[in-house]
UniProtKB/TrEMBL annotation:
Molecular function per GO: kinase activity; RNA binding
Species of origin: Arthrobacter subterraneus
SMART domains: ANTAR, GAF
Lineage: Bacteria, Bacillati, Actinomycetota, Actinomycetes, Micrococcales
Protein name: GAF domain-containing protein
InterPro entries: ANTAR, CheY-like_superfamily, GAF, GAF-like_dom_sf, GAF_ANTAR, WH-like_DNA-bd_sf
Amino acid sequence: MGESVSFEADEELDASGSAGEPPTPRDHSSLFDELQDLVLSTSDMQEFLNELAVLSARSVSGTEDSVLCGITVLRRRRAATVAYNSETAKAMDELQYAFKEGPCLTAASEQRTVLVQDFRTDGRWAEYSEEVSRHGIRSILSAPFTVGPGAQAAMNLYSYRPDAFDDDEVAFAESYAHQASKGLQLALRMAHYSEEADNRSRAMESRTDIDVAVGIVMAQNRCSQAEAFEILQRASSTRNVKLRMIASEIVQRVSGAAGATHFED
């Protein structure tokens, strides 16, 4: 069993489930327009993901505050909540990761919709259901996103009411997830490219320090480039410190500052 997560229910929601009848979901054409606007108007990847979570919850329930939404991404056998419209939704997702089972993990990994009408009577994922029920969550609807090779994802909609999602809302959520998948694919691709760019930048900065350190060792020891590099490698092996750290120390000791890398974005 995973560690217990402590938090209070969101103030804007009635944990007793007395909020009244759920609003009617909006039509598909309006939703498609909103998804397009969201993709075109949001330049920051994390902002896009958070807005997608808000839109997901509002689209299925009809109002932003009626349900909680988290978006789970599975990548390299690790699960993470990349966006959410409520801290409670994020905590409920993370409970599943702690137990290593639950509706959203099933929806993402098996690429099928999972509906739990009442955690108190549903027989699946017993430990997770018991823990979620303790925090007032009664039902969940998880619908998979299609995000391409290398990752799996699902939209997780939580409610404090039992039987919160009827057949029409399940069908709408599945259609919505299908339409929103392209936007999520774009966001994940942007994140991947950003991560690769950061890695390249760090690699170039490390290479700069190493090249400068080799030059310093060549000048101090009146040796060749190959011999200077061997000296750095021996120092790295002897001290059990990475080569780039050795190089950075030498550069900073001589110049008082780290080596600078100059390149265009």
